[in-house]
Structures
1.
Amino acid sequence: MFILNYLSHYFIAETQGVLNNLFNPFESYTLPLDEWVNNLVNFLVDNFRHIFQAISLPISGTLEIVKSTFLAIPPLIFLIIIALLVWQLAGKKIAIYSFIALIIIGFCGAWEAAMVSLSLILTAVIFCMLVGIPLGIICAVSDRFNRVLRPLLDAMQTLPTFVYLVPVVMLFGIGEVSGIIATFVFAVPPLIRLTNLGIRQVSPEAVEAALAFGSTRQQVLLEVQIPLALPTILAGTNQAILLALSMSVVTSMIGVEGLGQMVLQGLGRLNVGLAAVGGLGIVLIAVMLDRITQGVSQGSIQSWQERGPIGWLRSLGLSKRDKATLGISIVFALLVGVTGWQLMSQTNIKSTEDPLPGKGIVVRPTAGLETYGTFITEIVDIGLEKLGYEVKGQKQLNVPAMHIAVSNGDVDFTGTHWEAGHQEFFDNNGGEEKLERLGTLISNSSMGYQIDKKTADEYNITDLSQLQDPEIAQLFDSDGDGLANLIGCTAGWMCEREINHHLQIYGLEDTVEQIQGNYSALLADTLVRYRQGKPILFFAWKPHWFASVLREGEDVEWLNVPFTSLVGTMENFTEKDTLWHDKNLGFPIDNVRILANKKFLETNPVAQRLFEQIEISIEDVNLQQEKVKNGENKPIDIRRHAEEWVVSHQGLFDSWLEVAKS
């Protein structure tokens, strides 16, 4: 009997296992697609990155010409040129709108960012037209080519842009070129499709008539089909322009400057006003470009010689000599204005008897998206400038992109590398072979879990494990699912995995859930809930401007964890490493250091010695973050904060420079 029972249970268990595998085969085998993609990208980066860098040269060259031209023209002259050009192309009403829109952008303090965005869009659209229109024509004349290209266009239009941002950065480098390529992938498909559609929709009777009069196939295409399809092709160009502009914010995440970066900075600092200025600029430019392209595609009854400023000049009845004189005078006045602007913009650099060690060397820094990182990196930049280096503007990058950029040599250093927290990024991007950590910009940086002081005192909550109690956990339930909402961090950060591990190891999976998303956006909701008097539970770290909004001991309290348990590159840390003011925060107390490209350090020992000296107290960083909280959060404000810090620590700062020069 015992044997029969055993056999029956055995066969039932075996049958259930077979049925589970039959009805849910995905549990028994999973394709390692992620590993295949990683291996492919790494192979391309290791063996063919120089080829992709060469491909980017015409893009970067075109962009540099367009951007330098836009920024070289004084705003007033640029407004006049745009107004006249749009009047000629699209009519007086659209010209007036364009003039007013750009004036609004200028008075909002976003002129330079708008010019950068315009140059990026124009460059992207130029390459979209150079590639998209010929491919659309080939699709129209070849059904086989059209069938082959269609799935690729479907993939380009439906693939989320974030999927190909990282491989694009790894292959082409950080910054504008990668942004243009990502924009191209997103914006070119409609132009190809509409070019194809426009040519295919040309009346067969018109084609037959041209052939009947002896035209060749090439003549029919160039002189009949393309001219008749031009409105549809221009509609495709219009779509490409608008899609390119919509990528402004996305590409700002990989260091692309312009209006999109203003939006990203506003989001990162909960500065709705800054984000609104960038967003308004994008909207105004989008409407302007849309109306211009629509006006061009719809055409006009009048010929180009009879409309716009050219038609107005012709209507004056001037002689040819007077017209030539007027035209030359206008061009001469514009050239004088541009030349004068350039002379006024130049900075006279006084020569010194002792040449500075960094003279003639360009340094490219990067900082994270947080204001504390911009501040401490600005102090490093000032030191480099005092040593004669020409320091480019900081690239605002997220943590993964920042490490990729330093490793690949797209930038030279970052001032926001957390020694313990970013160890995995350090290892995955070449480690000690490509990178070197120097100095300690900020010591004793902390991270952990915080709750509002009111709830902590009322319910005597001091330890994270107390959230095992469903009644305690429901205090922090903001979405009504019965689980406490722990505001976590941005996906991909090291804290994401550690928080999930803590929920598991501390037995909180049934009562607490981590809310993931953009960290700054999540903090916005946290702040609103706090001001409404509701309980809050969130992952926090210092230095961070949010610590100046909700102060430790006054507004919020750190929570203990039952014991230290970490994973990945931090698994060897013990309670001694995670203890902060007699509280076990669960995360190691960290140091923020400079991370530099090793090749850059080998050729710039003076900069290396400077990096090794600089250290800024966390108290000074917290004071600066207080200013950020009070509204001084624009790049020009943070630069001023850095200059003020240098002045107030002049003796210490000068000693760093002396050591660097020695």
2.
Amino acid sequence: MVVLLWLGVIPAVQAQSFDKLWKEVEQAGKKSLPKTVIKLTDEIYRKGEKEKNSAQMLKAYMWRMKYQEIVTPDSFYVGLTGLEQWAKQTKQPMDRAILHSLIAGIYADYAANNQWELRRRTEIVEEAPSADLREWTANIFVEKVRTNVKEALADSVLLLKTSSRDYIPFVELGETSEYYHHDMYHLLASRGIESLNRIERLSSGTLPGDISSDPVKQDIISIYGNMISAYQAAGLNEGYVLALLNYLQWRRMADQAFRSFQAKNGLIGLTQDPYLAALNELKSKFKSEPICAEVYLAQAQFAIEKDQPVSALKLCDEAIGLYPSYHRINALKNLRQEILSSYLNVNVISQAFPGEEIKLRASHKNLDGFTVRLFNKAKKLVKEQHYSVLRPEDYRTQDTVFTFKSPEVGAYVMRIVPDIRAKRDSESEFNVTRFKVLTCRLPGQQYEVAALDAQTGHPVPNAKIILYSNDEKVLQEFTTGEEGKVVFPWKSEYRYLKASKGVDTAMPKRSIYGGSYGYYDDEDEATESMTLLTDRSCTVPVRPCM
């Protein structure tokens, strides 16, 4: 397959024809017609080949490969082989670079998606890999990705000179691509780093935290270094700053040595964080340029990560004042709003005993208080209580525990209402019941349910036990005896149960499991277990023995 690349302007008639075909492809995809998509992309590919339009050919090939796999799963391997043959035979260096980038991404995705299985295989070294990649080991995939990434970026001069606009519609221009003058170098370098990151965990022969012994991480460092040098030499300050920010962010996550550490004996505290030091240096160098807003954003996000919202707010305010017209200034404004916004999360149990003092665990920020409201089934307000909280001056989240006395038995809806206006108030079911139910599987396919008073542990006689199916339909009803128990034949259809007596009908349905009644050691003797219930209303202080 010999592919010629023409980077001239596509005549309007041809462009419209391609547009029409792609609209048909999208419609077929929405209608789940993979065979139609395959037929149409074949047509686009042939048309692109005839008109020497590599962008259309690449897009058509990848779409066809995707939908062919839906029809014939094994076609993935054929499609990958086709890409490799295309890369070998094309006479266009730019096409070859893109194809190697695609191949690296496919190998990386396959290896990452199958890494659990690959980790279990013994690596094959000094031996030609099998023609079937399903038999490959992790090290083969790692080398395939590394090799194809290097091939994709081999001619950096060509990539820097080639605009990604030449490969529309295969390439979609991103927002930040403008800062790199839409060159192909940034696109393929970013894809290469992404592919290498995908297979980094499969790289062998490395020590944990030792970046110098990891060939994959060294490849990533090399790519970042070449990008930073290239944009610096070209005088593209925006590209230089963004590439360096991406590298610093990656480095601090990948390299344990690129973090603050304990000072030596005789010194106090931690050493300067190298990531923060690099950001400070970058900010001082480019503070007069709008792109420096990105450095401020990185510093503010770092401050948030270190739980320093006051510092983050100061950085946001300074950047907004310095670069009000920067087109991504809203990222800093949004972060500022997030710091100043109110937050409330109240954790409370969903079931309580009548009159029980339950705990409300509230996490709050930039808030003065909240109200708890209880509504009955008729949506009538039956109880309301307001709680005041201390508003921290440092914008940090604070935890406070309050108490709330539950009302009489009944099914309620608890609504948490913050003092400030919220998009919606939090609502949850709150059930007040005296019941505590225990279940036990017995020999002979029998099942026992014991209905107890949740406060005293005393049995509740004449309680109704209702059994439900998986779709919560009533299957059976039983009544407990004087000891609060009922025994009945177990049925596999039973999935939920609840207990009720008189006005106490608020116990929520609880899942039940039939389990198994097994014998251990001696098959003629069943193993028994016991649960001890105490009367919680009677507590006696224990005097320690001396």
3.
Amino acid sequence: MSAEELRDEYPDSREAFSGDGFFRAEIGPSCAGMTVADALKKSCGFLIDRPCGGRGKCGKCAVFVLRGGSALFPGNFPENIPAGCEKVLACGEIVPPEGLTVFVPASKNLSARIDSVPEENALHNEGFDPEDTFLAVDVGTTTVESALAVKDDREPCGYRVIAGDTRLNPQKVHGADVISRIQYSKSSAGGRTGLEEMQSEIAAAVNGILAGFRQRFGDSCARKNVVVAGNTTMQHLFCGVSPEKMGVFPFTPAFTEMKIFSGEEMGIDTEKVTVLPSADAFIGADVVAGVFAENLTAGGGKKLFVDLGTNGEMVLASGGVLAACSTAAGPCFEGANISCGTGGVPGAVSRVTENGGKYLFSTVADAEPKGICGSGLIDVAAILVKNGTIDETGRVEETFELRGTWTGRDGNVIAEDKDSGVSLTQKDVRELQLAKAAVRAGMEVLLESENLAPEDVDAVLVAGGLGKYINAGNAATVGIFPGILAQKVVPVGNASLKGALLAGASDKNAEAMAETAGKIKAFSLGGKPEFMEKYVEYMMFE
């Protein structure tokens, strides 16, 4: 968002884009007593990334402040910041009575602004009536991915995608994982609860998506229906229903059934909002929609559906049975709790290879590097495991800095000897170890529950953010999958969004999805001692 656009949207604030690296915001006395993060949101609309939930632990909300008046700006940023600036954490620093000037690193810490970068590869936007369109939305813990589609009986799936949009979930500022969001939902400030605030944030994000599509394709776009899928916590927050009971044993959701609201009820600019069904507290509508979209039980055989995100949800189809479990992988697969991590948004380093000691990397949408997402993290870790930089215990001697050839989606070279700005620290490796051990252990316990071994599985369908870019061989190298399953991995991309599209194209599909949710039999890994044994075992790198 440009300085001019910011001024139009927030006329009471004073801000400017300073050079290549920082946004400048003047925080006035009216924000005294607030944290810098909250003041930036109120005065400028900046949403500062706080993966730790504002507890001052992750350091990702670091900004520079200048006390006692405005600065004269030197020409080069970020190399030259105004003299007298102090680095602080936006989550804990309090705005003084006189206000202060804040410099927000644009490329790294300004993680979710009002704008977004739409992805439009392989789309079909000719010859359609905007009045026949609907919006499908996958509300992820980290990202919100959506697609504008038109019903089309000529297509086997019953719809045709017109355009897409991917942006960070604005609720991310309240914490990277669902537990942080649940905790925040119980808070209260400024006359409203955290639950009300987060519902308003996600509704505003959807309205922003709708506004963008209507500006491009006509004001009548998606006026009839918006279809939403997400994990069970995200579904509750979207609906403004308290998820509090899912934060404590026995983890009981307030609802799992499909819900239909008017747009007015939800604060969303459309006639109807369809919220798809979940199976239980940990097997959400995103997984149900994905299982339905991929028709997991069709054709027989033994298929494993794995959604690798903040939680590692898994559904096993075998003999007509849909068995499922979820493991707390943590948010590292979505870039959170990683020093240079980000979601799968434009600019995220998504693929990394090594040849003769030289590195090649690519980014989502070929955008300027601004962090690393889960698939890129797995690639880097696999390379470092293979060359011995990371030993079997996960120990790494020194921080790894990614520099090399930046290539585009078509294989063209965008830049040689490019500093990606991405590094991998010891803490990052430990976060990956926790996540990959949880997924691997959960996967094996799920298979054993149906008396199966990895070699019995016919296909592994990998969904979620990693489903677009994952390198199965590298995932096996770091230990997410047993080696024998690597050759059976089928990346299916955002299966949740596919399911939402199918539900938007046909009411019958939405009803059938509710039946699918009822067939999934989930069990808790918490009561399985073998899970903890495997979890400890798979913490190591082989």
